[in-house]
Amino acid sequence: MKATGRSIQLTRQIGEHLVAAKLGRLGYIATPFAGNVPLFDLLAADIRGFAIPIQVKTINGFSWQFRANTFLEIEIVDDVQHIKGKKTLPNPDLICVLVLLGKDEKDTYYVLQLADLQEYFCKIYKGGRRPNNPNSMHCHVGPQDIEDRFHENWDLVARQFPKQLPE
């Protein structure tokens, strides 16, 4: 079954609302945005009003899709990609929640930071000559590729908020 624009949009929307609901159950106030915010999908706030941005990527299939040049400096010479190193990320500590929509609403959450995704793509993305399009930066990560330590790693959210100030 080929994904349509509508089904992709619904998958994205479902994932963002599931993460917002999960954060609510953990005691945070979370809200997604109606429009597109390029670097994050929702804000989560603690009871003191401190807020953090969160990126959500949702699939109901095999892998989360990314662009390698989000994470890596890549130069193309004569249709060959050369990896020059890691790109400076605007917010390496940004929390990313990767959601795998499951059958019977048995969804799976992986909670990590943008820098963790960068480390993964540094290891697996080799560049070289891309078979169909030399300019393609497509890369992906599947649930089988995600380290177990990121599964349901919601404590990462708590660690992103400022510590409680002594009274």
CATH class: Alpha Beta
Strand content: 25-35%
How are the strands of the largest sheet arranged? 1-2-3-7-8
Radius of gyration: 17 Å
Q: Summarize the helix and strand pattern as letters.
A: HEEEEEEEEHEH
Number of helices: 3
CATH topology: Trna Endonuclease, Chain: A, domain 1
- At CATH level 2, the architecture is 3-Layer(aba) Sandwich
Q: Indicate the low-confidence ranges by residue numbers.
A: none
Short description:
Helix content is about 25%, strand content about 30%. The chain is built from three helices and nine strands, in the order αββββββββαβα. The protein has helices at about 5-25, 115-125, 155-160; strands at about 30, 40-45, 50-60, 65, 70-75, 80-85, 95-100, 110-115, 140.
Tag the structure with descriptive keywords:
single chain; 167 residues; alpha+beta; Trna Endonuclease, Chain: A, domain 1; 5-stranded mixed β-sheet; two-stranded antiparallel ribbon; 3 helices
Kindly describe this structure.
The relative contact order is 0.17. This protein has 167 residues and is of the alpha+beta class. The model has no long low-confidence stretch (mean pLDDT 92). It is globular and about 60 Å long. The longest helix is centred in the N-terminal third of the chain and has 21 residues, at 5-25. It starts with a helix and ends in a 7-residue tail after the last helix. The protein has helices spanning 5-25, 114-124, 155-160, and strands at 29-32, 42-45, 51-59, 64-67, 72-77, 80-86, 95-100, 108-113, 138-141. It contains 3 helices and 9 strands, in the order αββββββββαβα.
